[in-house]
């Protein structure tokens, strides 16, 4: 069974979501189903069917989170150094536009490009891994070819 790499922050966020689903969402949907049952005929009860659908989604998400957290290998970036690897926060400059970007390379379950969290399996992260400050990388992205120069590597 493969381990799923994850930062401490990512694991904490997933644990918080799991706790919220189990302690708040699950009891609320159970109450909503019970309330909808009291309205009588279930075959034409839209509230009941909606609540059951939401319950199915919540239970599926709980199982998914439990599975991911069960296979998680939490990696603390502060213990790492050297070339770019999982957990690194990398500042690059686009060689065509001179635009600077900073990303942290994280696991796929915590990735969020808008927040600067780059999936370790993404084309950009794969191109960056193993490189050092001052190196240039060519990346084939869905938006086309990109060239980046690595300005800074942090393990925070």
UniProtKB/TrEMBL annotation:
It comes from the Bacteria. The keyword Transcription regulation applies. The keyword Protein biosynthesis applies. Keywords: DNA-binding, Elongation factor, Protein biosynthesis, Transcription, Transcription regulation. InterPro entries: GreA/GreB_C_sf, TF_GreA/GreB_CS, Tscrpt_elong_fac_GreA, Tscrpt_elong_fac_GreA/B, Tscrpt_elong_fac_GreA/B_C, Tscrpt_elong_fac_GreA/B_fam, Tscrpt_elong_fac_GreA/B_N, Tscrpt_elong_fac_GreA/B_N_sf. GO terms for molecular function: translation elongation factor activity. Residues 4-74 form the Transcription elongation factor GreA/GreB N-terminal domain. Residues 82-155 form the Transcription elongation factor GreA/GreB C-terminal domain. Belongs to the GreA/GreB family. Necessary for efficient RNA polymerase transcription elongation past template-encoded arresting sites. The arresting sites in DNA have the property of trapping a certain fraction of elongating RNA polymerases that pass through, resulting in locked ternary complexes. Cleavage of the nascent transcript by cleavage factors such as GreA or GreB allows the resumption of elongation from the new 3'terminus. GreA releases sequences of 2 to 3 nucleotides. PANTHER family: TRANSCRIPTION ELONGATION FACTOR GREA (PTHR30437). This is Transcription elongation factor GreA. It comes from Litorisediminicola beolgyonensis.
